[in-house]
Structure formats: structure tokens, C-alpha cells
Amino acid sequence: MNCENITPYGSENGSKTEQVEEMFDNIAPAYDFMNRAMSFGLHRKWLRRTLRHINNVSPDGPWLDVATGTADVAISLARMTPDVRIVGIDLSEGMLEKGREKVAGAGLSERIELKKADCLSLPFDDSSMGLVTVAYGVRNFQQLSKGLEEMARVTKPGGMIAVIELSTPTSPLIRPFYHLYTRCIIPLMGRIVSKDVRAYSYLPESIAAVPQGNRMTALLSEAGFREPRFIPMTFGTCTLYVARK
């Protein structure tokens, strides 16, 4: 199954882009809590590892965070490199409102700009960003290849892309526990906490369908990035993809 065909609310309820926007508007109040609970706090470890890779390369600014959500990645990037301006974009105004509150609380409103935009049509000039990041967002793209091409378009020559995405572990020892957790426990937690019945059932479906490993690095190459590679994390439940332009 192609991840582009997996939608939050079924094929009769508008485009995937429209449904993803609606879903994140619905779950925005509970999103940060669910992120912590679902990953047992490991999402912070995954982000720290990503930041180390970025810091080792030290790409020029400005930087773009696609599918920024509540701005966790944008805030972490700003704290890591005080001289760089960061722009975060997202489809969901509900998520952006939460993000703006967090940015203001961190005292970073002068350096981080959050705006509503579609990853399939980024409102930025060619070769204008030294770094593009996207965390847990590519499986929500209505057209994955087009989204990657847009990110390549706005990345400066020599710039970097970093993609964090949930993935399916390959170990036969880990996979049964992973399936039990993602297919049964997470949807139950989501129904209780977020009140959106479908959002956290969509999550494991979209993870299973998104291209992973070599399939994703091939798409990055086709989009215009070079030297793509992937780094599995925590038994393969999350994967970091990095490449240069």
C-alpha cells in the first residue's frame, strides 16, 4: 500500500492534504502529551541525534522546518545555533498556534517564524535554505515525491536535508511487540486522550505504508539530493535520513 493512499478519514472525505489539516487541528491540544507518551520520551533522544548530525555539518542559514507542528524541532534548532534564522511551516493552524505559544515562551519569536503553508508548494525561492528538516511528516504528504522535490528546490547547493520518520522494525523478535503496541495500545490511548477516533489508527497504517530504508533514500536521490543515507534508531522504530544537495 502506498502511503499517499492512506488517509485519516477515508477516501470519501476530501483530499489527503485536507484531511491531514483537519486531523492535526483536532489533535493539537493533546499532540505534545501524546508524542511523549507514545514514544516513552524517546522522541527527544531521536531529535538530539539528528541535531548532532546537523551540527557536524553546520549548514548556512536560513533553515526551514517542514511540518513543524508545535515547533519542537524549530526551537531545538534555534537553541543549537543562536545565529541562524528559522522558518517553520505547517498545514494546521491549530498546531501552529501551539507552536507560537512555545516559541514565545522560549523567547525565540525574533528568530523563529511560523507560517501556514503546503509542503507541495513551498513559498520560498529556489536555493534559499541551507537546511531543511521534517520530523514525522513525510508520510502525511499527499504526493511524497513532489514534497521531496520541493524541499530539494529550496535547498542551497551544498545544503542539507534531515528527515526523521517512524518506521517498522525488521527484527522478528521486536516486530510482534511493535505491532501490538502500534495497532492496539496507541489507538486506544489516542481515543481516550485526543477524542479523535481515527487519528491514532491512521498513525500505524501510515507508518507501515511509508517508504523506508533504501526505498526512501532512492526517492531522495530522485528528488535531487546526493549521498542519501539512513540511520535506524531504537531497534528500527524510527529512522533518520540525511542527504546533501
Going by helix content, strand content and strand pairing, the class is: alpha/beta
Shape: globular
Q: Could you spell the SSE succession in H and E letters?
A: HHHEHEHEEHEHHHEE
Number of helical stretches of at least 4 residues: 9
Largest sheet: 7 strands, mixed
Plain-language structure description:
The chain has nine helices and seven strands, in the order αααβαβαββαβαααββ. Helix content is 45%, strand content 20%. α4 (72-80) links the parallel β1 (63-66) and β2. The model has no long low-confidence stretch (mean pLDDT 94). A seven-stranded mixed β-sheet has the order 3-2-1-4-5-7-6, with helices on both faces. With 245 residues, the chain is of the alpha/beta class. α6 crosses α9 and α7 runs antiparallel to α8 (199-209).
